Amino acid sequence: MNDSIRKDKDIKQIDSPLPPLYSKWAYELLSGTFPNETVCDCSNCEQLDKNGVLPLNDNSNFHPETKCCTFYPALPNYMVGRILKDSDIPAMPVVNQRIENGFGITPLYLLCPDNDRRFEKVNFFGRTKAFTCPYYIVNKGCCGIWKHRGSICATWFCKYFRGKVGYDFWDSIKGIFLMIEETISLWCAEQLDIGCDSMEQCLKIGCILKDGPLEQDMRIDSREQKKNWGNWFGKEKEYFIKCGELVESLSWKDIKKIGGIKLETYAKIVKKYYDRLLNKNILERLKFGGLHIFEVKSGYYIISIYNDYDRIEIPIPIFEALRYFDGRPINEIMAQIKKEKNISFDDSLLQFCIDFKLLITV
Ligand code: SF4
Ligand code: SF4
Prior knowledge:
By secondary structure, the protein is of the alpha+beta class. The protein is built from 14 helices and 11 strands. One iron/sulfur cluster (SF4) binds next to loops. One iron/sulfur cluster (SF4) is lined by residues 69, 71, 73, 133, 135-136, 143, 145, 149, 153.
């Protein structure tokens, strides 16, 4: 679960970890490649106990039969269509069953039935088998809709090679794709002439299915279902497939046109964090930013700063040197640390401390 201070060699430019449709748009948006999160090895999950200890109330291990897949995402209509047209989807029976049963489907989304319950219980994340995502393939330990998963799943990592800098970048990518999911699913519904009354219903429901007596039993009210689906009632699968086909040919330029000013604003935010991710920036004046100590070991502490899942080992002398950072000019502080502790902060160590918010700007 822990690793020591990360150095530049960890940073690799490789293919985007996003689903193919989103990769295509993201490459066009950024005009560049993605740095992948190489410190997150999901095939050898970072958050499991190395000795196989299951989650207990006093540890923070994830469950080996869920890993971080205790989330149940809402899927936008076009992603559902892409899943239905793909012959290599391990979780296809679940998707088919949800559509055939009609429960929690609207012309905009395949919704999650019990999100309220999940979101209330944040401590259960990664630790509760009862919350396993239905699209998760337990015996293979992987996502059954991987190529077409939604924005929240596609942008989540438990740790980032550049700490908070990586987190901020991926959070901005999540933001823009959540907005795209909302806008493009609406655009698809409009293109397929879902009808004004259905659209009104769908907008009221949004992407989170409200909890109610029927929802708890995964039952549907067929009168409401008819209102929701308007012209497409009884042809839901066909509708989802058409949404997938409509979106397939959209370029980033098209997405921009549909998304308007709101999308432009999100795009600016993404570019800002992309720029930060690709560049290093040692600042002139820094102060200690605080941390959380989890464990004291011989010669080092296990700490977290910006995210409890991303724990790092920090040698005690480095930890002690951090208190010298009080906003004075960097050179003055470095000279004092060298003199009193005989420790040199090279650029790489300093950048690490900035990236992980161990040191913050004054
Ligand atoms: S992102 Fe999820 S599966 Fe991957 S290492 Fe982290 S907790 Fe494990
Ligand atoms: S959709 Fe896939 S990645 Fe997301 S929680 Fe479910 S199994 Fe995990």
